[in-house]
Structure formats: structure tokens, C-alpha cells
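Task: sequence design from structure.
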């Protein structure tokens, strides 16, 4: 049975030893974004290159880039009018999973997040929130350490450690009763 997406969004690129992704996998990728293309990597063994068709091409710039690029996968992308996105490593020979790839693409899709300015604003907000969380954690840690240091100082100098009105442990008995029944509340008498 012929895979109808070979030549649409999968190009074998003269690598017949590489497995062709199943039709359902290529179809899901096509449904997500019809401009995404997959082909076997010439640089990373048993890997595939995920690329996107370029909307704007500048032949003069392509010619300049062609002379500077040495990585074979990037050369294939340039020759086909593609922009490399990522490399897909296939870990098992029995299964093909597209869900994790689409989730990764969605997380990195700037347009899905409202465009470049909104995406940058969200990134800056996330970085600021992370910095605030770090500062709060550091402040809380320093507060706890200073309290422990103050308590240690007071113990070493023989000062009262607990605050007035704060419950403390009951004091240990200073005199331990002797005998097997002493202090148990049992009174033995001779009648």
C-alpha cells in the first residue's frame, strides 16, 4: 500500500534504508501544519529533519548562504526552500508517536501565543515571576536561619529561649523518685 504523503510532506532524499513514517503520522503532521516537511537526516544517523517551507525566498541570499553552510541537512533545506526546525530522533523501531512532537511545536509556536510581542511579554513575565520566587525563597531561608542563629545565641548565653505566652515543654523532673512504686501514685500501707 502506497503512503499518500510521500512527496507531500515526506521526502526520502535518497536514503532508502530509513523507514518511511506511517501514513497516519504524516497525516497528523500535515493536519497540524501543511507547511511542515520531514526527511531523513544526512548528518545524524537514524534521525529525521523537521523543516518548514519558506514563504519568502531570496535567491541572492540563498546563493550567499550556500557557500557558507557545511551541515548537510541545512544544505538540503536550502536547496528545497525549507527552514530547518528540529531533528526528530526515533527511539524505538516499532512505534511512531506524533503527539509529543506536536505538543513541542505548539509550545514553541510564537504565533499561537499571540505573535512576537505577546510572546516576548509572556517570556519576560515568566522570568520576572521566577526571579520573584527565587528572592522570596532566599528571604524566607535567611529569615529562618537568622531565627535559628538568634535562638542558638540565647541558648549559649543562658537566656530565655521561648517568648512569654508561648507554650514550652514541661520541665524535666529534678528529683527522680526511688523504688519500684515511687512516683506511681500507689500508696502501700500496713493495715
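Answer:
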Amino acid at each position: 500500500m502506497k503512503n499518500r504523503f510521500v512527496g507531500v510532506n515526506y521526502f526520502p532524499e535518497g536514503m532508502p534504508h530509513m523507514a518511511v513514517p506511517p501514513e497516519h503520522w504524516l497525516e497528523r503532521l500535515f493536519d497540524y501544519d501543511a507547511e511542515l516537511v520531514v526527511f531523513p537526516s544526512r548528518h545524524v544517523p537514524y534521525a529525521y529533519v523537521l523543516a518548514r517551507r519558506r514563504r519568502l525566498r531570496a535567491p541572492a541570499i540563498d546563493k550567499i548562504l550556500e557557500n557558507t553552510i557545511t551541515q548537510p541537512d541545512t544544505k538540503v533545506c536550502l536547496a528545497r526552500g525549507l527552514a530547518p526546525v528540529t531533528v526528530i530522533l526515533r527511539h524505538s523501531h516499532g512505534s511512531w508517536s506524533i503527539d509529543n512532537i506536536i505538543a513541542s511545536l505548539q509550545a514553541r509556536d510564537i504565533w499561537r501565543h499571540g505573535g512576537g510581542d505577546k510572546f516576548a511579554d509572556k517570556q519576560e513575565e515568566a522570568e520576572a515571576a521566577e526571579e520573584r520566587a527565587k528572592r522570596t525563597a532566599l528571604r524566607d531561608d535567611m529569615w529562618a536561619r537568622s531565627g535559628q542563629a538568634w535562638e542558638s545565641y540565647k541558648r549559649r548565653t543562658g537566656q530565655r529561649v521561648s517568648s512569654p505566652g508561648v507554650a514550652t515543654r514541661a520541665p524535666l523532673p529534678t528529683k527522680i523518685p526511688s523504688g519500684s512504686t515511687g512516683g506511681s501514685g500507689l500508696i502501700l500501707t500496713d493495715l
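The chain is about 40% helix and 10% strand.
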